[in-house]
């Protein structure tokens, strides 16, 4: 907190959703500019990444040949064109640009301590009180560090089928143009169900039955917690649940999908640790 804020000469920012103020917008662009500038304009990786982003936003490629340079089609000019797009875009299109840059998996860092690029953007979001963070190269409306940690950890299990469901849940939740909260909830609970099937070594089990069989596999869960997840499963899977169309899409809110995403991520992490301990594979570092 700076002098003006500490002394209440300037009001403190509140968490902002659905917009970017000018300071945050400028700082994010400065980060993008430095990402492309840091390794030098002659880097092949920089050129490939920039061309990919320019193509995605509907701009012409930049070129690296002498002829291209003579006609102003340099990488530097490409960055300037991208800046023009950035300046004239709505906030959600600017987020699309950031996600597109992250898609290229550009292997450069911004600072001497080799800070990963997503962390650079997250630092700006946090400092500028933006209500968004990057997880798995997607920008989502979650700021609580504990919630973020649970989701990030759950996306890196040794089990592909679990990771795939949670990644889908995250994508459905974070889609800014057309969020699908109903399917996000479905995928969140499917991830838990898949984790239980792996533990029980039985693909035919639905979650309610699988929870009842965990003890036979050496996984002991308090009865209240077990019943709580059975009820959550009922919310999605009984005759009036989300999976069977019993709940209309308009009735499912962002906060519902967020709750299920965070809760199911935490439960997947919990089950994973217990399971790996029974297999002698858990090292306590996750």
UniProtKB/TrEMBL annotation:
InterPro entries: AbiJ_NTD4 (IPR049503). This is HEPN AbiJ-N-terminal domain-containing protein. Pfam families: AbiJ_NTD4. Residues 1-156 form the HEPN AbiJ-N-terminal domain. The lineage of its organism: Bacteria, Bacillati, Bacillota, Erysipelotrichia, Erysipelotrichales. It comes from Faecalitalea cylindroides. It comes from the Bacteria.
